[in-house]
Amino acid sequence: MSKSKFETSLESGIHAKLSALIGSWKGTTKTWFEPGVVADESEMLGTFRPVLGGRFVMHEYSGSLSGKPFEGIAIYGYDIPNDTFQCSWIDSFHMGTGIMLSNGNAIENGSSVLGSYGGPGIPVPWGWRTVTELKSPDTLVITAYNISPEGQEDKATETIYTRLS
For residues 153 and 29, what is the distance between their CA atoms, to the nearest angstrom? Predict the structure, then answer.
């Protein structure tokens, strides 16, 4: 019996690369509210675990921003038929009560996905690009960029993790 596309991906494809994120991580997150000016730098703890037999990985994290605790969850996946990375993201600071859905492509050592946010106070949606790169087996960098309606892209957050386990 032949293997399914998912089984092959989990064994040696993109899902195997997603599985490389599984574990506990500790690092530092920098946050920018205006271009080039770091507003905060604080410790971040994160855990990646497989979901639904490795179809997805869930990133649960906690840290602080300006001395106040926050937490979040991102679910990363790869849609084989559509050849697309996908991410759903919630947190207690940036997203409020919303869920951001993002889609994108593979990059060297990871993925780059694009979502958007808006609302009554932000009538024209802004973009939010998240780049996840496994620089080495024990170094993970997650960088997010704010993209104005005019297309100006600026770094918003950057987490540099070191693997704990």
Answer: 19
Secondary structure (3-state) at 22: coil
Q: Does the pTM of the predicted model rise above 0.70?
A: yes
d(CA 134, CA 20): 8
The superfamily in CATH containing domain 5-155 is: Calycin beta-barrel core domain (2.40.128.20)
Question: Domain limits of the chain?
Answer: 5-155
Q: Taking the CA atoms of 20, 65, 29 and 109 in sequence, report the sign of the dihedral they define.
A: positive
Distance, in Å, from the CA atom of 45 to the CA atom of 150, rounded to the nearest integer, reads 34
Residue type, 133: E
Single out the residue of 159, 23, 144 nearest to residue 94, CA to CA. Answer: 144
Backbone angles phi and psi of 22, in degrees to 5: -60, 130
- For 101-116, the pLDDT digits (tens) are 999 999 999 999 999 9
